[in-house]
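Hello again,

I reread your note about wanting to compare the complex against the isolated chains. To keep things tidy I'm splitting this into two emails, and this first one only covers the full assembly. Below are the input lines as submitted, including protein chains and any nucleic acid or small-molecule components. They are followed by the predicted structure of everything together. The single-chain runs will come separately.
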Amino acid sequence: MAISFKDKVVIVTGAGAGLGRAHALEFAKRGAKVVVNDLGGKVDGSGGGSDAANKVVEEIKALGAEAIANGASVSDRKGAESIVNDAVSKWGRVDVVINNAGILRDKSFAKMELDDFELVLKVHLLGSVYVTKAAWPHFVKQNYGRVVMTTSSSGLYGNFGQSNYGAAKLGLVGLMNTLKLEGQKFDIRVNTIAPVAGTRMTENLGIPEAVFNQLKPELISPAVLYLASDDAPTGTIIEAGAGYYAKAQVVESKGVKLGQNVSVDDFAANFEKIADMSEAKPFDNGSGVIAKIFTP
Ligand code: NAI
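Full-complex prediction:
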């Protein structure tokens, strides 16, 4: 049976453009009632207004579906709460939060102003915390919730000039790792998308036009909707771009046990074995590491 979001209330942050807009439209097409949040600023986060969100709400209504606009900033605590409050006062519940809003303030670490570092952390990482935190009590009460974080290959693997963005983006994976555990008994599932898409955020990177055109935002939405569906996994990171989909994961090598008396020379002599990833495995949670250390 086709995946449906009938009767589900879905929040998509930063849904006035790019990926968020594509997700919001697809949720609406599949029956969801959608809160379209967008601050309406530029890629660097400056400026703002509700026009972007209102436009997408009109597009959704033209499809015959229900949506409301919210123009708050996710990085403002009260603003983030207002997104959830708008959903609950209009439709009485919230089922899904897609944390998508984001900005860029790229510069090499040497040249980066700390204010730009903090702002990027605030929008991506704390913005996702604030909106998810406001929705969490509703999820717990109704024994149901779905959250999707938006990370990036810049966070998972690094990218020149994006120390602020990369730190924020990998922070979201850390947030997911604990929320997936704390949400388990309430059927709250938390996943992460790592998109590659042609949007205004990526339009000035010198990507050839033929490639850019294949990186359609609409090709990320199927993965996002699956990660927010009733049958979603939890704690899963999916890379997606131009029709490519893959799972990403943090793994640890088999490791070496060198006993209780180890010098730096011993470590150096074993480094190759320690760093041998041929039998690497992931862990479901942090205590798995302690269990591994003490399991003969
Ligand atoms: P975009 O710039 O087209 O869309 C981002 C939207 O977020 C904008 O409409 C903007 O107004 C909104 N926004 C920014 N700050 C906000 C705030 N404080 N509160 C509410 N809304 C806010 O960019 P795109 O590409 O659609 O990005 C969406 C997400 O995907 C971002 O989190 C981005 O970091 C992430 N991403 C995008 C990639 C790509 O290839 N396009 C790659 C990896 C991650």
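For quick reference: The mean pLDDT is 97.

B.
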